[in-house]
Amino acid sequence: MHLLLVEDDELVAQGLSRSLRQQGYSVEHCATVKAALQWLQSDQIELVVLDLGLPDGDGIDVLKHIKKHRKSLPVVILTARGSIDDKVLGLDLGADDYLAKPFDPAELFARLRVASRRLTQAQSSLLSVDDVVMDIAAHTVSYQQQPVNLPRKEFMLLKALLENQGRVLSKQQLENKLYEWGEEVGSNTIEVHIHHLRKKFPKELIKTLRGIGYVAGKR
User: Fold this and answer.
1) Bridge-partner residues for 143, per DSSP?
2) In what side-by-side order are the strands of the sheet with 126-129?
3) CB within 8 A of 18, min separation 6: which ones?
4) Structural domains of the chain in order of their starting residue, each with its CATH number
5) What is the pTM for the complete model shown?
6) What is the pLDDT of residue 133?
């Protein structure tokens, strides 16, 4: 997989590039917003690891560009900004994951594998986590091979979570999904429907990350 590493710390970039290549990635490195935007003109880039504090601007601008022009391109933010507000902002803007520095490379590699699987799975009509299977084309859901009937809002929320398996979605992101599908959203709509989904499927299917959002499957 062809990966773009946007990181201005040269020592970090060198070590990370070497480790990523050992993991089987083809790595391109750049250190500025301008260079990142130039690289993103190439359709060959399949995955982005993005630092936020760059010498000529904010990596958030790179993320916004990606989600405007290449919405399906997975982005994992890697930054020294580790506050909950920064994480929520990055996730709300479409990042697939957010890892604060200092970090364990093994955790980064795991997050990248999850992002890659999500992209592959999104290209199929079948979404699955363990014994839960959703057929988007047929609009059906099953658990342990038994059909499960879901109201429209529950189906749409589960679809969003399964499409982003292993990726945290904030409450605002899930609300935006329902708005996009023409659904009305009240102040506690997400909590209510997540509660109903947990009653129909294993409780561990959908995990809550307090103050950040919800995630389906393993992270």
Assistant:
1) 132, 146
2) 126-129, 132-135, 140-143, 146-147
3) none
4) 2-122 (3.40.50.2300), 126-216 (1.10.10.10)
5) 0.59
6) 92
151 Cβ partners below 8 Å, 6+ apart? none
183: Cβ contacts below 8 Å, ≥ 6 apart? 152, 153, 156
Chain mean position to CA 71: 11
102 prior amide bond cis, ω within 30? yes
Beta bridge partners of 213: 209
Q: How far apart are the C-alpha atoms of 92 and 188, rounded to whole Å? A: 18
What's the confidence (pLDDT) of residue 127?
Answer: 86
Q: Tell me how crowded residue 130 is: count the other CB atoms within 10 A of its CB.
A: 14
Neighbouring residues of 189: CB distance < 8 A, sequence distance ≥ 6: 153, 175, 178
DSSP-assigned letter for residue 111: H
pLDDT at 89: 83
In this prediction, what percent of the chain has a pLDDT beyond 70?
A: 93
Whole-number percent of the chain with pLDDT over 90: 50
* Cβ-contact 183, 153 below 8 angstroms: yes
Strand partners, 99: 78
